[in-house]
Amino acid sequence: MKRIAIVFVAGVAVVSVLLALAVVLGAPRPPPPMESINTPFRSVDFSDLAQLKHYTARDGARLAFRAYAPATSPAKGSAVLIHGSSASSNSLHPLAKGLAQAGYAVYALDMRGHGESGPKGQITYIGQLEDDVEDFLGAVHPAGTRTLVGLSSGGGFALRFAASSRQKLFDQYMLLAPFIHQDAPTARPEAGGWVTTGVARIITLTLLNRFGITRFNTLPVLAFALTSEAQKFLTPTYSYALATNFRPHNDYRVDIGAAEQPLRVLVGQDDEIFHADQFSAVFEEAGRPVPVTLLPGVGHVDITLQPAAIQAVTETIGSFRDGESP
Question: With a cut of 50, which residues of the chain have pLDDT below it?
């Protein structure tokens, strides 16, 4: 019996050391810059970028967003835009302008942990991003039919929100080249070179969270392929809490099945981060077929930058109203 106790204690000590090493040494290494993500924004005209506004979240934090007034009166509805990983509301400027010119009231958010919304790469708890979006709606009250539009990781978060008990806060959801899951058929290894992952640290922190230990959730687990210049104003890394919250839940099929509001997916055929041709199958396999539109000649970030892609997004939002195919 004494020998068993010694072996057990020794085993626990070894496991504890391994867990500690994974937490301490498991940080992701920054990948080399990914030009197809960084370069397109250099040609964007930001001279008419909407000024930052702020609202107060339930924890007292002042979070940032940009508002674009509709070119028509009354507005056709409202669109709330969620940027992709590492980015901010700035990156959605061309899309926001295009939707506003088409007659929509548009709001581009700096999600907490990005842009001017709190410390970069950090949130306080998993689930805080949903609380923030609800607080934004309560503060701003977007008028008319509300569409939540998310790009990439923002699209994954939009799916997460669409599956939640708060899904009816929006009338419809549009996912632009959305991140579904690292093991979904849509995923390329390391997102085509966009991200590196501290796998050992993620596994360890996930285990600790199951036992209610969250004190290490501020540690970085994702690093993005930014240029040295972009690292100055974008978000180079995500903490475990932010990386876990800014995406669908781990069982993404449950999220897809739980999303009851109208849902559409747009993705560029030339997407270099995801396998564009696999999105339809992912939703069908989860029991929720949705219209998926593939845009020819469009890459990952092009879907919010190219005029033809912006027009496709605008037309798809309008098609919800009459139940038309995009």
Answer: 4-15, 17-18, 324-326
Residue 158 backbone phi and psi in degrees, to 5: -60, -40
Rounded to 5°, the CA angle 188-98-324 comes to 75
C-alpha distance from residue 262 to each of 106, 163, 316 (Å): 19, 12, 12
Are 11 and 61 in contact by the 8 Å Cβ rule? The answer is no
Give, in order, the Cα–Cα distances in Å from 116 to each of 65, 111, 284, 286.
9, 9, 38, 36
Q: Looking at 68-198, list the stretches that DSSP marks H as alpha helix, in order from N- to C-terminal side.
A: 93-101, 128-140, 153-162
CA 227 vs CA 38, 111, 145, 219: distances in Å: 7, 21, 38, 22
State pLDDT tens for residues 50-63. Answer: 999 999 999 999 99
Distance, in Å, from the CA atom of 282 to the CA atom of 278, rounded to the nearest integer, reads 6
Report how far Cα 323 is from the mean position of its chain's Cα atoms: 26
List the one residue out of 178, 229, 193 whose CA is nearest residue 29.
193
pLDDT confidence of residue 164: 98
What pLDDT does 320 receive?
Answer: 86
Query: Which residues does 156 contact at the CB level (< 8 Å), separation at least 6?
Result: 150, 175, 178, 179, 180, 246, 247, 248
The 10s digit of each residue's pLDDT in 193-251 is 999 999 999 999 999 999 999 999 999 999 999 999 999 999 999 999 999 999 999 99
If one counts every other C-beta atom within 10 angstroms of the C-beta of residue 269, the result is 12
CA atoms 16, 18, 23, 24: torsion sign = positive
